[in-house]
Design a protein that fits this description.
Layout: E1 2-3, E2 6-7, E3 11-14, H1 21-51, H2 53-56, H3 59-76, H4 79-88, E4 92-94, H5 95-128, H6 133-136, H7 139-165, E5 174-175, H8 182-185, H9 194-226, H10 231-255, H11 264-285, H12 289-305
Parallel strand pairs: 3-5
Antiparallel strand pairs: 1-2, 3-4
Helix pairs in contact: 1-3, 1-4, 1-11, 1-12, 3-5, 3-11, 5-7, 5-9, 7-9, 9-10, 10-11
Amino acid sequence: MARGNQTMVTEFLLLGLSETWEVKVLLFVFFLLLYTATLFSNILILSAIISDHHLSDSPMFFLLGHLAFLDLCMSSFATPRYLFDFLAQRQAISFQGCMAQIFFLHLFGGGEMFLLIAMAYDRCVAICHPLRYASFMSRRHCIGLVLASWAGGLLHTSVQLCFTISVPFCGPNRVDNYFCDIPLVIKLGCTDLYPLEVMMVTNSGILSLVCFIALLLSYTLILSTVRSRGPKAASTCTSHLIVVTIYFGPCMFIYLRPDSRFMIDKVLSVFYTSVTPFLNPTVYALKNKEMKAAMGRLLQAWLLAR
């Protein structure tokens, strides 16, 4: 496909995280184990919530189930392809495949940001206004929060994709990561990059920053309320804050810098695409007694069924 005398790019080359064979093998084993553990833990959480009516009727676990589903999606948009391409010794991804990765990354990533705010709101209401919790977090309101999270993610990614897909790419076509993302792809465009960089900062960077500040404020309010209930409640909130920082920190670092890229960006991208979906079950589910009991019953039922 040609435009004037320029040959348009029809595929991109994913350079991965390292060029050294030994490091590539270690990364393959790391991602394989991490992805397997992420699949198992999040599927177990989803199954436990669905099979236990008490959990599925609880607003907190209803939202947690959707977080587990988003984590499954987030960890699966690029990692399986990365593992397969390593075995097949392939680096190329089609233009359509690259745009699809950008779409799903920001759909699931944006949706998870909004859902984390909904979960923080749920905890704020439960702790600060316990007598009004049932009316504030009815099933209708919970469904509305989940739909709003998906709608926010869809709007966020649609704006990104509309700008990116209209960019003329005439070479080079080397993406310095194991998946396609906007900061790396727009750098390859044969056009004025300033409007694209402003769009990225506004739509991804500022969105991450605003959501992170909202979460910090909500957890600060929760911590100030539960500090009298002992160190365990404070420890739970602190662990939530740590995981939230691991997720939002790299996002803000990458998307709020439109004019420069660093080698560490590739490492940081692993945190919000692969590490956080693995950590979320541990922080949000395994510290809850009801959730652990439901997961134990489900595992026992699976073992007896065999």
